[in-house]
Amino acid sequence: MTTAQTAAHQHMRTVWWQTANPAPDTQPLLNASKVDVAIIGAGFTGLTAALHLVRRGARVTILEAETIGSGASGLNAGFVVPNFAKADPTAVVGKLGGERGHRLLEMIGKGADRVYATIRENGIACDAEQVGWMHVAHSEKMLGILERRAEAWRALGRPVRMLDATEARRRASLRHNAGALIDDSGGTLHPLNYAYGLAGAAMNAGAVIHEGAAVQAVERSGNGWRLTSGKSTIDADTVLLCTNASDQGVARRLGRIVVPLRVYQIATAPLDTATARRISPDRNPVADTRANLFTFRLDRNNRLISGGMSMLPVGAEPRMARMIAGRLQAELGLQCLPVIESIWRGTAAMTTDFLPHVYEFGPRFIGGIGCNGRGIALTAMLGEVLADVASGAPLDALPIPQASPRALPFRSFAAAAPSVAIAQARWQDRRQGL
Ligand SMILES: Cc1cc2nc3c(=O)[nH]c(=O)nc-3n(C[C@H](O)[C@H](O)[C@H](O)COP(=O)(O)OP(=O)(O)OC[C@H]3O[C@@H](n4cnc5c(N)ncnc54)[C@H](O)[C@@H]3O)c2cc1C
User: What's the CA gap between 372 and 366, in Å, rounded?
Assistant: First the structure.
């Protein structure tokens, strides 16, 4: 099975699919056509780029191999987090230099505000709650690191502050909670309904979306490009490749650049109101600072959403369901093991420097990737950057750095790296008695 088919199969097992609004109506791809911009992939990145472009007057078609949101955009946990999972602001400036580093940080920091503004402007019904994202320090040592991180984001004008242990414990009743960083611009949403809402807004503004239209080839044709999907073709001046970690057809060009990370997510049965209020009275989504990090949030019905990674794929689902349920019970002090209603998995795309990038595959044939586990806020900005490129912005003027589109060397070994990292993380946590 290809990555995209696996994703589509997983998609129907998610709590999001089971609680989704009606999917927007799209049209089958039948005839040859000519557009200004062809976008491959109807996840957050492609849909956001399309929305910007049609509002600027471009003729845009999106070709989606499966259905809207069937990739990571419909498989994620719905945490809206405007920062990097693995790179501190100081490290970003160290890597990119002062000017470029600050430009990227300023853009990333605004990602969550942009997501919620787009939701409000377009009236998207997706359980959006901008209640603040919490990063809980599991130890005093990590508290010091979070304090420096909060200071760096504050210096960039972001609404990031520290909560002392009492307030952090009131907001998140975690077993190990020494205090927390809170970014008030972060929050949660229903990811599939957000994708449906972006698609609806883009189509209302004039974009055309074709589902079940996997693109097999993109070839040079005159001054533009010809895309082939089954027996149909589309000619476009510009092509945006927004296929994330997929490896289907032309998506391999982007997929082979990143390290695929297999992530399991679960949704429990709804908690009773008293328990939900005790563990998360302000409904903040939470991640902690352990090497094998613990995350949780509530959905609109007070289901707990949490996740984890497995070292071995074989038999992983029942094992992960037991493991995540046990962790939720222990960390949140639940009286009994929570009942798991749904378990699914998805593939997150990690870049080797943990930063987002744009890639040039040919003249006006551009791809972008930026997930690293923070894709909801980040794709709101990446989509706009790709729209800027399609509108003629030079690549070296973008806030997201360009990188080489060469395949990762030794990619099959690189794909095993996450398993090694999980084993290390668990060992590190056990040494600290966690
Ligand atoms: C399990 C999991 C949990 C996550 N949790 C979070 C979270 O809580 N918060 C957060 O911010 N981020 C999270 N992420 C990351 C986030 O979901 C992604 O960064 C984001 O959805 C990427 O969006 P995208 O549009 O770039 O890619 P995708 O949503 O993957 O979309 C790519 C699309 O391209 C289509 N496609 C592929 N090949 C072709 C082809 N040849 N022709 C046509 N179409 C094609 C696919 O079918 C797919 O629909 C998580 C990721 C995973 C996997």
Answer: 19
- Ligand 1 contact via 320 beta carbon (within 6 Å): no
Alpha-carbon distance 283 to 153, whole Å?
A: 23
| pTM exceeds cut of 0.85 | yes
Q: DSSP character for 22?
A: P
Q: Which of 371, 372, 385 for mutating ligand 1's site (highest number of atoms within 8 Å of CB)?
A: 371
Q: Given a cut of 70, is residue 211 above it in pLDDT?
A: yes
Please enumerate in sequence order all residues whose Cβ is within 8 A of that of 131, keeping only pairs 6 or more positions apart, or say none.
187, 188, 282, 283, 284, 285
With a 6 Å cutoff on the Cβ, whether 111 touches ligand 1 is no
Measured CA to CA, the distance from residue 395 to residue 147 in angstroms comes to 35
Ligand 1 centre from 193 Cα, in Å?
A: 14
Question: CA-CA distance, 384 to 45, in Å (whole number)?
Answer: 8
- Taking Cα atoms as reference points, which of 112, 265, 233 lies closest to residue 184? 112
Instruction: Output the residue whose Cα is nearest ligand 1's atom 14.
Output: 373
- The pLDDT tens digits for 276-312 are 999 999 999 999 999 889 999 999 999 999 999 887 7
**Structural tokens at position 69:** 């949101």
| Domain layout of the chain by residue ranges | 3-76+192-259+352-417
Question: Kind of pairing, strands 208-210 and 60-63?
Answer: parallel
249 lines ligand 1 (CB under 6 A): yes
CB-ligand 1 contact for 53 (6 Å cutoff) = no
Which residues sit opposite 182 in a β-bridge?
134, 161
In angstroms, what is the span from residue 372 Cα to ligand 1's centroid? 11
Under a CB-based contact definition with an 8 Å cutoff, are residues 72 and 375 in contact? yes
**Fold observed for domain 3-76+192-259+352-417:** FAD/NAD(P)-binding domain (3.50.50)
Dig out the tokens for 45 from the structure: 């990145």
Q: Are 218 and 208 in contact (CB under 8 A)?
A: no
Give the CA radius of gyration of the chain.
21
Ligand 1 pocket member 51 (CB < 6 A): no
Tokens linked to 50? 């399309």
Which ligand 1 atom minimizes the distance to the CA of 46?
A: 25
Question: How does residue 421 score in pLDDT terms, banded at 50, 70 and 90?
Answer: low
